Amino acid sequence: QVQVVESGGGLVQAGGSLRLSCAASGRIFTINDMGWYRQAPGKQRELVATITRGRITNYADSVKGRFTISRDDAKNTVDLQMTSLKTEDTAVYYCNADVRTSYYSYGSTVYWGQGTQVTVSS
Q1: C-alpha dihedral (16, 40, 88, 3), degrees to nearest 10
Q2: How far, in Å, CA of 7 to CA of 20, rounded?
Q3: Is the CB of residue 28 less than 8 Å from the CB of residue 99?
Q4: Helix, strand or coil, per DSSP, at residue 72
């Protein structure tokens, strides 16, 4: 089994910064892509940023230049540094990890965390 846990959410004023962290633990051989997604009230979950094992990153247009995703493979963690936050960034932020659990199988499974609330006030 694999667990994914997010931390670092909270309340911040517009223009401020927050850093989200996510840790995967359990039966992990390697982790392929890791990512952050968010879901605002009444909206569908959307991609925020992803990062491959080779450190190739992808960002939603709405966060480019403001958010930075990074990962530490030794710790099985992925972070999201958020700056210049806007009220429209308010959402529950979810982390996911595409985990390969066995040396003997190339198959992988995407695991999700339970989310952390980010609220940006005006």
Answers
A1: 30
A2: 6
A3: yes
A4: strand
| 98's tokens | 């595409």
pLDDT digits (tens, 9 = 90+) for 12-58: 999 999 999 999 999 999 999 999 999 999 999 999 999 999 999 99
Across residues 66-95, what is the average pLDDT? 98
Of 93, 95, 57, the C-alpha closest to 76 is 95
Report how far apart, in Å, the C-alpha atoms of 66 and of each of 17, 86, 105 are: 9, 10, 38
Cα dist from 50 to 11, 16, 46, 59, 95, whole Å: 24, 22, 11, 7, 10
The single residue listed with the structure tokens 């979950």 is: 45
CA–chain centroid gap for 106, Å, is 23
